[in-house]
Design goal:
Layout (H helix, E strand, L loop, with lengths): L4 E5 L6 H14 L4 E5 L13 H7 L4 E5 L4 E5 L9 H7 L5 E5 L8 E5 L16 E6 L10 E3 L3 H12 L5
Parallel strand pairs: 1-5, 1-6, 2-5, 6-7, 7-8
Antiparallel strand pairs: 3-4
Length: about 170
């Protein structure tokens, strides 16, 4: 991967989306151009039944682009194809300073693991993933060999990510 990529991973309800959202806000406020990729483990639809673009997809279009003066979106129907690899998705993104990737537990990019005490977590992911280089948690964590951040200390986590991917502020 030639882009600067950093992941936010964790079990369901561990705070990944909130942390990602807060990191995007912090990093863009620092002047970085940030893009995100979110992995969903279930069927999802960003389109509404009855809209023209929904009707185009229902009719069988493989890709549908929706374009306006404010934004554009491209939807690609897999029609039985395998889910694309992260690298293929990253290759379609416009140039930016950093791509934050939410999810994608098994990919080989640097990641921070989000943990919340009330989440029904499985085994800590850091125990078996050498690409997890830090943890963000809402509770104390003992006996870790990697940095542990308070999940609400977003500025410190953003600093860590900047260093980890080689972003330098001028």
């Amino acid at each position: 991967m030639t882009q600067r990529v950093f992941g936010i991973t964790g079990w369901k309800n561990s705070g990944k989306t909130t942390l990602t959202e807060r990191l995007v806000a912090t990093l863009t406020a620092r002047g970085w151009r940030v893009s995100t990729v979110k992995h969903a483990h279930h069927a999802f639809d960003i389109d509404q039944a009855g809209t023209d673009s929904f009707r185009h997809r229902q009719a069988g279009a493989g890709e549908v682009a929706i374009v306006s003066g404010k934004r554009w979106a491209l939807m690609h129907e897999l029609h039985g194809e395998e889910e694309p690899k992260l690298e293929a998705i990253l290759a379609r993104l416009s140039p930016c300073d950093l791509v934050l990737v939410e999810g994608y537990k098994r990919e080989n990019h640097l990641k921070i693991e989000a943990r919340r005490r009330e989440a029904k977590n499985g085994t800590p992911l850091s125990a078996s993933d050498p690409h997890i280089v830090a943890i963000a948690a809402d509770h104390p964590i003992e006996s870790e060999t990697i940095p542990v951040f308070d999940i609400d200390d977003v500025p410190a986590i953003a600093d860590f990510i900047e260093r980890a991917v080689g972003l330098r502020r001028s």
